[in-house]
């Protein structure tokens, strides 16, 4: 098997942005058509709402190896060996996890061996290039080596859960800090002072950097709750 090559995070972000525009437009279109043909029942409207989402996300991933955004970016979603597409159940599970976690799911792309997001880790999938012909060298990423042989690491699922736990704690801390530092008028949505806006920028940057630090430390086995152990001690 040829060595798998993985796209940079920016390509995956572009794919998500494309899909985040296309899917709502498709949903809106199907609802308009439903109204035009007289669909009025709750079940009928629910089907019109869910059908384009299911077709454009897990449906296309299972049938073609990627969403419209993936194909436009010349990348694809594949099984771990890079040879086949996910089955419909794995593709649906992957989409649900991605939808629930949002952008938080992509943080661990910067730390995982196969450049996987949380939804890829749990669905046992990878995102790879369709063809690297003509791509600049910096666009072609290979499997990274993040685990040191001298250490035994917790299983991937445990590290993911601990990272998510720390991320939730960091988000709660952000909310608390916002409530303490912002003026009552700003919190009420009426008017924010210059100081409020500066605090917003500072807290947002700190939160994003904190999430990155948590992802790197957690996947490297350096967070409490999922620490790596020396193989000598483990033995």
Can you summarize the main beta sheet?
2 strands, antiparallel
Q: Provide the β-strand percentage band.
A: 5-15%
Q: What is the total number of structural domains?
A: 2
Number of strands: 4
Helix content: 55-70%
Instruction: Briefly note the structural class of the backbone.
Output: mainly alpha
- CA distance, first residue to last residue: 34 Å
What's the rounded overall pLDDT mean?
A: 89
Low-confidence stretches: none
Provide a count of the helices.
Answer: 9
Strand order of the largest sheet: 1-2
Helix and strand element order? HHHEHHEEHHHEH
Principal-axis shape equals: globular
How large is the radius of gyration? 21 Å
Description:
- The chain has a two-stranded antiparallel ribbon.
- It is mainly α.
- It has helices at 9-37, 42-64, 68-72, 88-101, 118-123, 156-181, 184-187, 194-219, 231-234; strands at residues 75-79, 125-129, 151-152, 229-230.
- It is globular and about 65 Å long.
- α1 (9-37) runs antiparallel to α2, α2 (42-64) crosses α4 (88-101) and α6 (156-181) packs antiparallel against α8 (194-219).
- The chain has two domains: 9-139, no CATH class; 151-234, no CATH class.
- The model has no long low-confidence stretch (mean pLDDT 89).
